[in-house]
């Protein structure tokens, strides 16, 4: 469990994190979302004790970082996949970390297998692609088998197969009861991964809720309707306050009424319907709507 309370970080002329309060529970994947520059990395660094907050607190398991036991057995984190010694092999890099954390050497081969790098374990990290470095970063986070895992943009640079693999891994780790906190600036990456979302913009909290609630409150639902008499239906639906857009293929998109209400009105007015399809709010749309005001680089303006 991570508890962040009124967490704030100010740099000279930028408030990177602005009074954030939220909790991250164990046993589920929590997505940490926000547009570029929203303050995600700064927040994660404060949770990990790598950046000192200007004010507020970040606690894990009820204890602040300075009072917590340290090391890879307690928390595993991937912050910057490029931040590794390029001259070492993947195995040597992990051996060094295992040694300094009092972990058995065999754990290194286990995690290399887990992340799919067993075949390149002896190769210099300097020659690794970004995706391979991400996998190595994930291996590092897993090395101590910790109950808390924090990943900052972990799927950057992974190919589609790698993205699927990472999703499955995060879900499995959460299923084992761990706390899994994963940041991303793309909603699509969270859609099939996260149970819970923390959404921030310009350092401030925008939403902290289950993914399903987030999707539901974002965009209005749309209903696609097909009828041989679109004009008559449009008149009736408009009179009920709905917005109707007619398309070239004869279908109409209706917002402002449920499919059931549209069906009832059509029935009452003896208008035949060939199709009534409800489109669940797209998560991507919900995310864009909620963060629209906080996109840092919109139209070239800076905060
Ligand atoms: N050391 C620093 N000194 C000054 N400003 C900083 C520093 N670190 C971060 N910032 C600023 O704080 C804001 C938040 O940055 P942060 O990297 O936390 O955002 P982010 O959500 O992780 O973004 P991204 O998705 O682009 O990685 C940005 O405006 C950034 O320029």
Plain-language structure description:
- The chain has 303 residues and is an alpha/beta fold.
- The chain folds into two domains: 2-210, Rossmann fold (3-Layer(aba) Sandwich); 222-280, Alpha-Beta Plaits, CATH 3.30.70.
- The chain contains ten helices and 14 strands.
- The protein has a six-stranded mixed β-sheet with strand order 6-7-8-3-9-10, sandwiched between helices. A four-stranded antiparallel β-sheet has the order 2-1-4-5, with helices on one face. Strands 12-13-11-14 form a four-stranded antiparallel β-sheet, with helices on one face.
- β4 (55-60) and β5 form a beta hairpin.
- α2 packs across α3 (106-114).
- The longest helix is centred in the middle third of the chain and has 16 residues, at 160-175.
- The radius of gyration is 24 Å and the shape is elongated.
- Bound molecules: adenosine-5'-triphosphate (ATP).
- Adenosine-5'-triphosphate is lined by residues 11, 14, 16, 34, 36-42, 185.
- One of its GO terms (molecular function) is ATP binding.
- This is ABC transporter ATP-binding protein.
- It comes from Phytohabitans rumicis.
- Keywords: ATP-binding, Nucleotide-binding, Transport.
- Belongs to the ABC transporter superfamily.
